[in-house]
Specification:
Length: about 575
């Protein structure tokens, strides 16, 4: 079939095979040609920008990780200063000091357990140099080698990396602070990181090439250097990198990131030769990469052809099988074999499910239509000529009225009204309000007949009276309770109509009779009219069950349960639908 293409006539459709071939060819060869035409300057600019951006990004990550580590160390120091520690410093008696010190020990052990990234920590007396609490032995004395101060913020001193005070050679990060920042305290808290954190923070190779990392205070003075021969402690680093990605000084590239919250700087310094090796290496690899790309493109094209085109053919075969014959859709299709592609297999399985579901819906539709016609015929069989019945009953009503028989007049009036409703033909569904009015007329007739030997209690909600229900739905339920369920004396039938939380209407009819067995209930509900009892209009509970399933589906069918000497309950649930057929 030709596809219209505006004023240029018709566009010829392309096959998937051709489209894949052209797409892969263009997406592979064109970029390679563009890169080949580009000059070395373009390659240098692109790679230089890429390398500089990568280094700056990694440096910013280092800065962020260090800030997070220092915050964590400060948080641990705050956890160490609890109420028991302050009370311990103020305690006078030995027993109080002992109890409080045990509480502090337990608290500090919990702090150490819940913070695996910290190493040594202790609380020391600044005047006596005594260590009160410590999680590891302290090998360095309080007045030992000075620790490099990176910055001081709100009374907390942040030290640059230095050797651990537990006696090892491993570099660590640390902070120190008084136990009480608000008042003068002679006790200090010292917390250092786990030695492994240094390698994670200041790794030489995390930028893709060897780099020297330097930390300075907010004035640019070096407080830590990984190469003190080139960048000695106390020297001042260049400070003109605010608007530049990097700065080239002598034989090194300088990259810098600043901690905006604390003011210190971290530098990454890379040798020129190492920096240009990245560019030169990419330039040397370009030709080999181009050849590899062409080869990979060919392989990918063949692979895509296999994983796409073959399943498409099988799916086309599945679709081709649907020619309107839904009687055999549930049979296994010869094209339903697996394609080993999850998405295609799922689509084909869903397609098979759809075909099966459509076939089942068609069968259910046919079955519902047949049952509906069956019910109409069965109902017509039990109907008499309405005009003849009405005329005869009107004559009876007139004669009774003429002779003053008011009870007979009332009985005939109610019966005529009930008969008109039951024999009505104005649609399949009526408002629940009309159904309840007809039910009240039926109950009145039966109470007159049995001299009011039974009682019917009806509980309804005004909010559901506009719901649409099949005509003649409730009378067979009361009829069944009257003929099969009532006790000999004091019979009670309860009808309740309620609105459930899920929006469905629950209708229940309960009697206080002797109850029925499961076999008796099954016979009342089965389709075989010769096997069930005929009472009243003779249609029985099967009419109710069938009409529910026809109009509302299988989930709305009539159900029952019964217990010996406790009566029988018939119930069903239907959706709350208004006159427009919409669910409320």
């Amino acid at each position: 079939m030709n596809i219209p293409s505006g004023r240029f006539g018709y566009a010829k459709p392309h096959s998937l095979k051709r489209s894949l071939f052209v797409g892969l060819l263009v997406s592979t060869i064109v970029p390679i040609l563009l890169v080949g035409i580009s000059s070395y300057y373009s390659i240098y600019t692109i790679l230089d920008s890429k390398t500089a951006s990568g280094i700056n990004s990694s440096l910013q990550q280092v800065r962020s990780n260090m800030e997070m580590l220092y915050r964590n160390l400060n948080y641990v120091s705050q956890q160490m200063t609890n109420r028991d520690l302050n009370l311990l410093f103020k305690a006078d008696t030995a027993i109080d000091k002992y109890i409080l010190s045990q509480n502090v020990f337990a608290h500090l052990n919990l702090v150490a357990y819940t913070n695996p990234d910290i190493g040594l920590f202790y609380i020391a007396n600044r005047e006596t140099k005594d260590f009160l609490f410590q999680n590891y032995p302290v090998k360095a004395s309080g007045d030992g080698e000075a620790m490099p101060v990176l910055t001081i913020d709100k009374g907390v001193t942040y030290q640059a990396p230095h050797r651990t005070r537990s006696g090892g050679q491993e570099p660590v990060f640390s902070i120190s602070r008084p136990t009480d920042l608000l008042t003068e305290s002679k006790y200090d808290i010292y917390v250092e990181s786990d030695p492994e954190m240094y390698d994670q923070m200041l790794n030489h190779s995390q930028y893709g090439m060897d780099a020297i990392q330097v930390l300075t205070d907010e004035k640019g003075s070096i407080v830590f250097s990984q190469d003190e021969s080139l960048f000695p402690l106390g020297a001042v680093m260049p400070g003109s990198l605010e608007e530049q990605r990097y700065q080239v000084i002598d034989n090194h590239y300088y990259f810098r990131a600043q901690s905006a919250k604390m003011g210190w700087y971290v530098y990454s310094i890379i040798d020129k030769k190492l920096y240009h090796n990245e560019v030169n290496r990419w330039t040397a690899y370009w030709l080999s990469i181009s050849a590899i790309c062409l080869l990979i493109s060919a392989v990918i094209g063949w692979w895509i052809w296999r994983i796409l085109v073959t399943p498409f053919k099988r799916l086309h075969g599945e679709i081709h099988q649907m020619r309107g014959d839904f009687d055999s859709v549930s049979q296994t299709s010869p094209f339903a074999q697996k394609t080993n592609v999850v998405e295609f297999d799922e689509v084909m399985e869903r397609f098979q499910d759809m075909r099966t579901h459509i076939g089942q819906l068609m069968k259910e539709l046919k079955l519902n239509e047949e049952e509906k016609r069956y019910l109409e015929v069965e109902k017509l069989v039990h109907q008499m000529n309405p005009h003849f019945l009405y005329n005869t009953l009107n004559t009876i009503q007139w004669l009774a009225k003429a002779k003053g028989q008011d009870e007979i007049v009332r009985l005939a009036t109610v019966f005529i009204r009930l008969l008109r409703y039951n024999l009505g033909r104005d649609g399949d569904l009526v408002e629940l309000r009309l159904e309840m009015n007809a039910l009240n007329d039926y109950v009145t007739l039966q109470q007159i007949r049995y001299n009011y030997e039974f009682t019917v209690q009806i509980q309804t909600l005004s909010t559901v009276m506009d719901a649409k229900v099949p005509r003649f739905l409730l009378q067979p339920l009361i009829e069944n309770a009257l003929y099969h369920g009532l006790a000999d004396v004091g019979g009670l039938i309860q009808l309740s109509v309620s609105l459930e939380k899920d929006g469905t209407i629950l209708v229940m009819v309960k009697d206080n009779g002797k109850g029925m067995s499961e076999e008796e209930i099954r016979k009342l509900l089965q389709h075989d009219s010769s096997a069930r009892d005929k009472v009243g209009m003779g249609i029985g509970l099967n009419y109710v069950d069938t009409m529910l399933r026809v109009h509302f589906g299988e989930s709305a069918r009539l159900q029952a349960y019964s217990s010996s000497n406790e009566g029988t309950t018939m119930y069903f649930r239907i959706p709350f639908r208004t006159g427009k057929g919409e669910a409320v």
